[in-house]
Amino acid sequence: MDNKKEQIIQSALKRFAHYGYNKTTMSEVALDMNITKANLYYYYSDKTALIKDVMVYIFTDMLKNEYAIIDSYRANLLDVLNLLLETRANYLRDYYVLYISENHEWIKGQGVSTVLEAMHEKHIEMMTVLFTKAIDQGEVVLNDVKQDAACYIELIKGLSLIRSVTDVLSGMPNVEHVDEILDTQKRATAFIFENKLISKN
Fold first, then answer.
1. This prediction's pTM
2. I need a labelling partner for 198 at 20 to 30 A (CA). Which of 47, 115, 153, 174 fits?
3. Are 62 and 85 in contact (CB under 8 A)?
4. Are 52 and 116 in contact (CB under 8 A)?
5. Cα angle value 72/77/79 (rounded, 5°)
6. Angle at 185 between CA 180 and CA 186, to 5 degrees
7. Ramachandran angles phi, psi of 86, nearest 5°
8. What pLDDT is recorded for position 201?
9. In contact, 21 and 51? CB cutoff 8 Å
C-alpha cells in the first residue's frame, strides 16, 4: 500500500473511531492530515472509498492476529475459540463506534456491503481452517466443515448484533455491552462444542 494512503487511513481511523463514519467529513480528515482537501481527493475520490479501505485495514490486522491464534492450536479447540472471541472483543472495544455504524442501513447503501460480505467469507474460511485442524486431530467430528464454520460465524455475529441492537437503533454506543457480547458468545460456544469434543481419556 502507498505510504501516504496508509497515513490517511490511520488518521481517518482515529476520527471514525471517535465520531463514526457518518459524522466525519473529508474536510476534517484533510485537516487532521494537514493536507488540502484536493490532495485528499487525489488519493480517495469520495468518503465511501476511504471507509472501505479503513474497514479492510482493521479487518486485515484482526485476521492476521486470529490466524496466529489458530496456528497455536494443539488439540484445544475450546481454548482457541475463546481466544478468538477475546481477540475480536478487544477490536470491538477499540472500534465499537465503527461497529455500530456498520449496522446502520445508510452505510449498506454506500457500496460498503460488498466489503462486509467479503470479510464475512474470510472469517468463514478462517474458521474452516480451525475446524479442519480439530477434525484432523480427532478432537471433534463434523459432517460438513465449511457449512458448520459458516453456521458458527453467523451465530457469533448474530449474538453480537442482538446484544448491541439498542446501540445500533439509538446511535448511542455503550462499549460496556462488549463484555455482555463476549460472555454470551463464550457460553454459546461451550454449549455447542462441549458435548461434541471427543474425550482423549
1. 0.90
2. 153
3. no
4. no
5. 75
6. 100
7. -65, -40
8. 46
9. yes
Residue at grid coordinates 480528515: 29
Distance CA 116, CA 95 (A): 15
For 64-111, how does the pLDDT look when each residue is reduced to its tens digit (9 = 90+)?
999 999 999 999 999 999 999 999 999 999 999 888 777 665 555 667
Residues of the chain with pLDDT under 50: 201
What does the chain look like in DSSP terms, one character per residue? --HHHHHHHHHHHHHHHHH-STT--HHHHHHHHTS-HHHHHHH-SSHHHHHHHHHHHHHHHHHHHHHHHHHT-SS-HHHHHHHHHHHHHHHHHHTHHHHHHHTSHHHIIIIIHHHHHHHHHHHHHHHHHHHHHHHHTTSB--S-HHHHHHHHHHHHHHHHHHHHHHHHHHT---TTHHHHHHHHHHHHHHHHHTTTBPP--
C-beta separation of 77 from 130 below 8 A = yes
> Residues 185, 155: contact at Cβ < 8 Å?
no
Ramachandran angles phi, psi of 15, nearest 5°: -70, -45
Find how far residue 173's CA is from the centre of its chain.
16
Tell the burial category of 201 from Cβ atoms under 10 Å away from its Cβ (0-12, 13-18, 19+): exposed
